[in-house]
Design brief:
This protein is α/β, with parallel strands linked by helices. It has two domains: about 5-125, Rossmann fold (3-Layer(aba) Sandwich), CATH 3.40.50; about 160-215, Winged helix-like DNA-binding domain superfamily/Winged helix DNA-binding domain (Arc Repressor Mutant, subunit A, Orthogonal Bundle), CATH 1.10.10. Helices cover about 50% and strands about 15% of the residues. About 30% of the residues are buried.
Length: about 220
């Protein structure tokens, strides 16, 4: 069965572009569109979907308020923010509101399909550009918080040589597919390594992984 997807965006040209990108994707079906949050909620009352591609800046009811309302009323419907806003304020607000993913509108077809598929499975997804913004903001706050830097984490994880290689490639902004090619592995193997790294180190996301690696000198070749 294909994944049923709604698009919530007030720009018809953009909606048409997304539809064109996904027309021949067998596993994804666009079942409707809405120009604002109120329209989307009415659609969901009649026919729930698996995923909603949510713009943030919409008239009547914007993406942030709509995502909060959806999280209460339709918790099984996943929200993938698809927007031009790349600042950390919008990113963090959408994630706190209940969005499962955050993707910029300049994303290509492959990344869009990947993001939709992953959030539908219950995973979290942020694009590489968004990850960089989060990391930059995190280190900016760290540098301005106090005259004395915060002490590094006392956690000490036992990492394999391959895991160290993967951390260093992640820090260089390589995608899972690129890392797989460089290390002669499959993308699924790299995804498994990443999950194991998060669990070993005790962090929640890529930003935490890189911060830990920097604090412990793991990025030094």
């Amino acid at each position: 069965m294909p994944l049923n997807v709604y698009i919530a965006d007030d720009h018809q040209l953009f909606i048409a572009g997304v539809k064109a990108l996904l027309t021949n994707v067998e596993d994804i079906k666009i079942i409707g569109e809405a120009e604002n949050g109120q329209e989307l909620l009415k659609l969901l009352e009649k026919t729930p979907s698996d995923v909603v591609l949510m713009d943030i800046n919409m008239p009547v009811m914007g993406g942030l308020d709509t995502t909060r309302e959806m999280h209460k009323r339709f918790p099984d419907v996943k929200v993938l923010a698809l927007t031009m806003f790349d600042d950390t304020l919008h990113i963090s607000e959408m994630i706190r509101a209940g969005a499962s993913g955050y993707l910029l509108k300049n994303a290509g077809k492959e990344e869009l399909v990947n993001a939709i598929t992953r959030v539908a499975r219950g995973e979290k997804y942020v694009s590489n550009e968004v990850s960089v913004k989060i990391i930059e903001n995190m280190f900016s706050k760290d540098s301005n918080a106090a005259n004395t830097p915060a002490p590094p984490s006392t956690r000490k994880a036992e990492l394999t040589r391959r895991e160290l290689e993967i951390i260093r490639l992640i820090a260089k902004e390589h995608t899972n597919n690129e890392i797989a090619a460089l290390l002669n592995n499959s993308p699924m193997t790299i995804i498994t390594h990443r999950k194991n790294l998060l669990r070993k180190i005790g962090v929640k996301n890529t930003a935490g992984l890189i911060k830990y690696a920097m604090n412990h000198g793991l990025l030094d070749e």
